Amino acid sequence: xxxxxxxxxxxxxxxxxxxxxxxxxxxxxxxxxxxxxxxxxxxxxxxxxxxxxxxxxxxxxxxxxxxxxxxxxxxxxxxxxxxxxxxxxxxxxxxxxxxxxxxxxxxxxxxxxxxxxxxxxxxxxxxxxxxxxxxxxxxxxxxxxxxxxxxxxxxxxxxxxxxxxxxxxxxxxxxxxxxxxxxxxxxxxxxxxxxxxxxxxxxxxxxxxxxxxxxxxxxxxxxxxxxxxxxxxxxxxxxxxxxxxxxxxxx
Length: 251
Description:
This protein is an alpha+beta fold. Helix 1 (5-46) runs antiparallel to helix 4 (215-248). It has helices at 5-46, 63-67, 171-178, 215-248, and strands spanning 73-80, 86-93, 96-107, 113-122, 140-148, 165-166, 182-194. Strands 1-3-4-7-5 form a five-stranded mixed β-barrel. The chain folds into two domains: 5-42 and 214-248; 72-194, no CATH class. 35% of the residues lie in helices and 25% in strands. The radius of gyration is 27 Å and the shape is elongated.
């Protein structure tokens, strides 16, 4: 049976579409394997012994050195620079929108400070500028947490003011603002204790999400591409079967 030009074009179009969708599906599976390896590295880093202040990457501005320490647990001693506390707006936790509270910690025995994401504070429904009072002890404290990258950014207007409440915080610009070198990592605080070992209650919420490499997203994308491949093949077979039946009917 001789195929028409239309049938040939449909055949090659179907083959091309199947090849494309299949390749995209396997590409997403390959991305998922890469993310699995990344997630395994994150978990392994988190299980290593906590870093002390002197072990943190000591080269300011060398982000590559700091990346190797990301997701490590830390146990740091230092003093809060409470007057430099910043509230990052439009941050969600527990299904509510509020602020992430960040305070620089002057590391003991070092000239650098490290930014600590201390916890989440609710927003006042009547007055968004009314902030929760966060108890911040003076003197030496011990902060336990894990290392993460700089705080994530949200959309903001170009002329956003540099006050206590901000949309975003750039580490390099903040270092110039407080006139102190800042390490290129952030500590996600889990707990704080005074120099005598007594725990500090500050009223902040710390329901931090575990590190997520986006692994399941790639499996979902792969499933969609393979499903599209099956749909294309099914439609092609259905239309061809319908065409053959139509041609087989006596005129």
